[in-house]
Amino acid sequence: MSIDTxxxxxxxxxxxxxxxxxxxDVTTLLADGAGLAELVERMGTIARPLDPDLIVGIEAxxxxxxxxxALTLGKGFVPVRKAxxxxxxxxxxxxxxxxxTDRLELHEGQVxxxxxxxxxxxxxxxxxxALAAAQLLREQGASVLMALFAIDLPDLGGMAxxxxxxxxxxxxxAFEGD
Length: 178
Description:
Elements (H helix, E strand, L loop, with lengths): L2 H6 L2 E4 L7 E4 L1 H4 L2 H15 L6 E5 L2 H13 L2 E7 L7 E8 L2 E8 L8 E9 L3 H12 L3 E10 L5 H7 L4 E6 L4
Parallel strand pairs: 3-4, 3-7, 7-8, 8-9
Antiparallel strand pairs: 1-2, 4-6, 5-6
Helix pairs in contact: 3-4
């Protein structure tokens, strides 16, 4: 299956969540069995040579892709969640959004110091959430080998922001002009 075919499985919803935004909805790709398998295989091809210790997925669709990738690679999976969602003792990081702040958390001690991490999410736009997740992981003593995404919106600069912060980043599909 070609990249163009994969991209064609991603639904575009105009003017969501506000006028002028072209929302790229990966759920339509996830619902296509062959498309999902191809996406995870392509992500696995990138991730396999890195030989990460753990796959860390960012809430929420990063859980889906991260868990599938962890299974493909025979690695463990750790979720990075929004504040207040994990039942045990957590560590977290606050970060700035376009209109306010948010917080990401993970269970304390779940990512061992020295762990080699592959960070996964469905889409990168400005990179704020991925940058915060990478910082949280670094604060635990982990090494973020790469941030890997299904979709990049390159005009919003997220990949460049990650790379400027020392995090290698790659995506399977790019949608220019968004």
